[in-house]
């Protein structure tokens, strides 16, 4: 019968027991009072009944949490929930009820986290509730110390309360749960205000050794370039450059919101490249596999160092040909390793080499075999000329790295069409 009762029936039954004189002062697991349990379940009529009969509204459990704080600990609710509107209504009414009866919003838990800070972390979009809690917690005559993570959430969720908090806050408490790369996600104006008042905190955020290992992170967005520029124009420029040099291109690309355009991704990374963002062979491969021969790849080809043999040995054939100028299809065919189906298909857009055709046919993959049979029986002259010209230029100008080769192509008196063929930007067989 107990499991069959609705929450309304349960709440009515609890109120009836209280009215009949049931003990309302026992402590439960974790030293919770009945008021803690009532507000946690949103049994607000029970909570009101308990408060009116003298239950301590500010009682703390073993974690130092009051009933008001327990309301803030409720897992955040989203519009995708079936009961979203009712849950949000219960949440707001629960907070209002406790504050109406005199709940003290300034009480911190045993870790020193205030109710306001916890509400910011769990319910950052509840602007009216947060503002009311902030006014009850921090007055204009006392010190206002707020944890960095709470301020980060206000900035990242673009809370209109941010400016009011910044006017009053006197000190930022650093903790061990800083959001990774936070200075590069928030609105630029928020970062500017924060930097003006707490530049030493931003300095710590940029030098935090643990920030890159934070499990939950916020993606880069269109404002990231503006934020990098703001920091690079400040006295924190040296620290920002060090920070950039520790990052990697694949990491940035994985963190960029997919709703942004590829152009926005390229602009961000090209901007960072000018300040020392490192380029590796694996970066070239990942960028090529993600978006082909784009503008970012062209920029990176002018900055890549001589690849290490261990690094290139694990990479796809065509990206390796593009950026390892001493590696070509003939070199691959002397000691062919297992080539993925997708890699073979891509290579067949650029090569009709008979030995490579045989290699593909021996792999006996239907889709690859069909593509091989559509190729001419002998390579076209453009393919032969391309490969011979690349070898001649590398030998004639004693080129040792990809950056030299692609810089040379820009200076040769040849058409854009020929340049794209020599750089493997233009496929020959499609």
Automatic annotation (TrEMBL):
PROSITE patterns: ANK_REP_REGION, ANK_REPEAT. ANK repeats lie at residues 30-62. It holds the Pfam family Ank. The keyword Zinc does not apply. InterPro entries: Ankyrin_rpt (IPR002110), Ankyrin_rpt-contain_sf (IPR036770). Keywords: ANK repeat. Signal peptide: none annotated. This is Ankyrin repeat protein.
